[in-house]
Design goal:
A: 242 residues, alpha/beta, Rossmann fold, 10 helices, 9 strands, 21% strand, B: alpha+beta, 2 domains, 13 helices
């Protein structure tokens, strides 16, 4: 394995994806096209783009929930796009944490169980979850009592912070975050961002943060515009108008 | 996984509860129909054993079987005492039991018979009757009661009882002048014998005499001469045991063609077979209906799971991002359904056991059905297994739907 791929958390080459497979066959434009793109391990990247610019599609591809029509995605040196779906699911469970806009948690089970479930798929011992949460909750400014509450009983802001804990429980190498603050007010948003960046530093996690909110880019060392990344003609135009 | 499925079911309590009741009812119906069917057959078949022929007045063979053995319905006509004696004297005949019916005591049938009844009557697997207390009657106004009669009425050896004419539980024509004394209580048999009061044929004759004649007899009780004068002129039926089973057809034909009296001889086995043939139709209809009910509630289960799929889209998306494979989502739905069905099956078994324990007496008293409350027979268990297998098949539909949802689910559930 070449050296540079080890330090590369994300490596995308010649990626092409369309939701409409018929359109793909006819050789018409794709929904997402990326020539070449790398993120090195431990970097915090802000990916800015309007809705419809393909950023959620990109996250789905990186998470291995969607597979590219052509091209390759290599994560941590593992060619994820060519793995079997079972292996991809296992890889995601172990190496990738995901926080998205809303509804990150299963509403009818307790917070603890939500995190334990993620731990179960990531092969982390359920007994470690308790200590993990009691360490993390004060820092997320969550009262420790709420681990036994149902997820649906928490406020949206609390749910989003629990989602960070859930995403970090397996000590993932890559954290994919999609518009996590859109349902939060300004204060909650700042608190959320601070603790997120802090934790990613502490866990040495590569962070890919997707948002349309340019205000948030001040937290990041690297900012990429989705319009520059996605070479589909449609999106270049959308990027130009914004 | 199991506890997660349980939580998931609990979160949709209302629809799950309704589905549970629908399953509970349909599984109970299916199991009870099947159990009663098997038990009824069993209890009917065990009622009569080792009796080769039943002889009575010509009617249907079922009718004769029902009143002589099951104490259901009433004898249409009687046969003469001479016929009984003739039959008893046949070469091939080993023993005969005379039976005289038509009276009751507090709703329990009274059967006039002879000592031969206690010597030769058999039930189940050729088991003879046994006394749990006392002994057989040996004079006119003595009675032997079945186990259920003793239990229900609290009678013991020595208790005096009055026998009423007719077979209702309330009779206005009580034969008050003729009290019978209990001399024996039979051990439980699980057959109509338990519900019967046995007296002598002479006793039956005596209570039907005019009051004056009866008073005379009461005065001179146990007199050999009076016993002789009370020899009945007719009886309801005769149970016949043969020395050789080979003779049964010859004797049956001979009896059916007996010129001095109108007689009919039946073989209990043949009559029972005819009974089952008749019941077979009803049984099949009942089973088909209960299977249809079950199918409809399994469809209900499937519909419940399918309609929950829309609200579960997010839940499935969450499971997917934390690394659950589509197959895990599939098996989650299966687990939920199996959990629900298993709980329903167990509840149905519990409910039915309880119901049969409670209704046991009523069923045996009213319909002569002796139903074992123990449902853990191979028969019921295999039906339970089939139910679970069928629900697994019907759940495939929503589970596959969930699998597809899981495959297509992605993070953009922003809408």
């Amino acid at each position: 394995m070449p050296d540079h791929s080890l330090s590369m958390a994300i490596n995308v080459e010649g990626l092409r994806f369309s939701y409409d497979k018929q359109q793909q066959k006819q050789g018409l434009r794709a929904d997402l096209e990326i020539g070449e793109w790398q993120v090195s391990a431990g970097q915090h990247v802000f990916l800015r783009g309007e809705s419809g610019s393909g950023k959620s599609t990109l996250l789905n591809l990186l998470a291995g929930i969607l597979t590219p029509d052509s091209g390759s995605i290599t994560l941590l040196g593992e060619p994820v796009s060519t793995l079997s779906s079972r292996k991809r699911d296992a890889f995601r469970a172990k190496h990738i944490g995901v926080v998205y806009q809303q509804f990150n948690l299963i509403p009818f089970v307790s917070v603890l169980k939500n995190v334990q479930l993620a731990a179960h798929f990531g092969k982390t011992k359920a007994s470690d979850v308790g200590t993990f949460l009691s360490d993390l909750f004060p820092r997320l400014e969550l009262p420790i009592e709420c681990i036994n509450k149902k997820a649906s009983e928490l406020s949206v802001g609390q749910q989003q912070r629990v989602a960070i804990a859930r995403a970090l429980v397996n000590n993932p190498d890559i954290l994919l975050v999609d518009e996590p603050t859109s349902a939060l007010d300004a204060n909650a948003r700042d608190a959320f961002m601070k603790v997120l960046i802090e934790l990613c530093k502490q866990y040495n996690t590569t962070l890919l943060f997707v948002s349309h909110d340019a205000y948030l880019q001040s937290y990041f060392e690297q900012v990429i515009d989705m319009a520059d990344l996605n070479t589909t003609s449609n999106n270049t135009r959308a990027g130009a108008t914004s | 996984m199991l506890s997660f499925a349980w939580d998931s079911l609990r979160s949709r309590r209302k629809s799950v509860l309704l589905t549970f009741f629908s399953l509970l009812i349909s599984i109970s119906v299916l199991l009870s129909v099947e159990h009663i069917r098997a038990q009824a057959k069993d209890s009917f078949n065990r009622t009569v054993s080792d009796i080769d022929l039943i002889v009575g007045a010509p009617s249907g063979q079922l009718n004769l079987l029902l009143y002589s053995i099951f104490r259901m319905g009433s004898p249409t006509n009687n046969i003469s005492w001479e016929s009984f004696e003739t039959i008893s004297q046949q070469n091939q005949v080993e023993w005969t039991i005379p039976i005289s019916l038509g009276d009751s005591h507090q709703g329990y049938r009274v059967l006039g018979t002879s000592q031969a009844y206690f010597d030769h009557f058999k039930y189940g697997k050729k088991q003879a009757l046994q006394f749990s207390e006392g002994e057989a009657f040996n004079s006119i106004f003595e009675a032997v009661i079945g186990a259920d009669v003793a239990k229900a009425l609290g009678y013991k050896v020595g208790t005096e009882m009055v026998i009423a004419h007719g077979i209702g539980s309330v009779s206005f024509k009580n034969h008050d002048y003729a009290p019978f004394v209990v001399t024996g209580v039979l051990a439980p048999t699980g057959t109509p014998v338990d519900k019967t009061v046995h007296v002598t044929l002479a006793g039956i004759e005596a209570i039907h005499l005019a009051p004056a004649a009866l008073a005379n007899i009461l005065k001179s009780q146990n007199d050999a001469a009076t016993s002789a004068s009370l020899t009945p002129s007719s009886i309801s039926a005769v149970l016949v045991g043969l020395e050789s089973k080979m003779a049964v057809f010859t004797l049956q034909r001979a009896i059916n063609n007996y010129p001095q009296d109108r007689l009919m001889a039946i073989m209990p086995g043949v009559a029972l077979a005819e009974l089952w043939q008749m019941m077979g139709m009803v049984e099949n209809v009942l089973i088909i209906i209960s299977v249809l009910v079950l199918i409809s509630s399994l469809i209900g289960l499937s519909v419940m799971l399918l309609s929950s799929m829309r609200e579960r889209r997010r839940e499935i998306a969450v499971l997917r991002i934390i690394g659950a494979s589509p197959f895990t989502v599939f098996s989650l739905i299966m687990t939920e359904a199996m959990l629900l069905v298993s709980v329903s099956v167990l509840s149905a078994l519990g409910l039915l056991s309880l119901t049969f324990v409670v209704l046991n007496d009523w069923l045996s008293a009213t319909y002569g059905l002796f139903i074992d409350a123990n449902l853990m027979t191979p028969n019921t268990l295999s039906i339970a297994a089939i139910v679970i297998a069928c629900s697994a098949i019907t759940t495939l539909l929503p589970a596959i739907d969930a699998y597809r949802t899981a495959l297509q689910s992605n993070l953009s559930t922003e809408s």
